[in-house]
Design brief:
about 20% helix, about 260 residues, alpha/beta, about 30% strand, 6-stranded mixed β-sheet
Length: about 260
């Protein structure tokens, strides 16, 4: 049992469309939502590749390391006093990555590149995969950040000895595979005894792929706490309470019987 459990965390998931390969317009979009929801949120989460959409063409717009996008997100987080999460394309150590960001109002930034690159979409041709896995921290909560295709790989997501409390999955997950997205989010919550926040985009992208959204917040038993309407621009908010999570892990310690393994990267 955690002796000093973290305070409840107010999480808002932004289900929105993305301006195709228009970084400046998407930064304005982010600020628009943050301005409206910062007062009722501790953390606001945006979909995958929020500044461009998902395409190989977007690689040409990848942010410089700690460049315009990085600095703009820091500024917005500080200005509205709320933490921000999502992903964007960025140069890190000379390579382009699809990188998950978590930015706090005090300027602290945590980054995790995507591990599993989506070959059918050509992602392996313009993005490098992660070479390590990080557990983020925010206000005492421990968070596993994953990006879209990572959701399909349970070993990558495995919660070893309750090392995290919350999965945040950001995505550009097309409508034809929406039931896979919805099913895997609930599965990851139940098998790992953790909360899950899944945030997906809506609209049609420049390649004519259509996205239905299906953004959702789920508790460790697989119960839906909040769910966005299909193909609707919407922000859903709920408060995550650590106490029920702690009680479930104590009452039903399935984690103690998990198979041990070494994650090779």
């Amino acid at each position: 049992m955690v002796s000093n459990p973290p305070s409840p965390l107010r999480v808002s998931a932004v289900q929105c469309s993305i301006h195709w390969n228009d970084v400046s317009a998407n930064i304005q979009l982010i600020e628009h939502f943050v301005r409206d929801y910062a007062a009722t949120s501790d953390l606001i989460v945006f979909p995958e590749t929020i500044t461009t959409g998902f395409s190989r063409e977007a690689a040409q717009l990848a942010d410089k390391e700690q460049g315009y996008v990085y600095q703009s997100l820091q500024h917005i987080s500080h200005k509205y006093n709320v933490a921000l999460a999502g992903s964007y394309l960025s140069n890190l150590a000379g390579s382009i990555h699809n990188v998950f960001f978590l930015i706090e109002p005090n300027g602290q930034v945590q980054l995790q590149p995507k591990r599993h690159l989506f070959a059918p979409g050509g992602e392996k041709e313009f993005v490098r995969p992660a070479t390590s896995r990080s557990i983020f921290t925010l206000y005492g909560w421990r968070i596993l950040p994953i990006i879209c295709y990572d959701l399909r790989f349970p070993v990558w997501c495995r919660n070893v000895s309750n090392e995290y409390d919350l999965i945040i999955a950001v995505a550009n997950w097309p409508r034809p595979r929406r039931e896979v997205f919805r099913t895997l989010l609930r599965a990851r919550a139940m098998e790992n005894l953790c909360y899950v926040v899944g945030v997906n985009r809506i609209g049609e992208d420049g390649h004519h792929l259509v996205y239905s959204g299906d953004s959702i917040l789920i508790d460790p038993r697989g119960k839906i706490l909040a769910e966005a309407r299909e193909e609707t621009e919407e922000v859903i908010t709920t408060t995550l309470d650590y106490t029920p999570l702690q009680e479930l892990r104590s009452k039903f310690p399935v984690w103690a019987d998990a198979d041990s393994f070494l994650l090779q990267i």
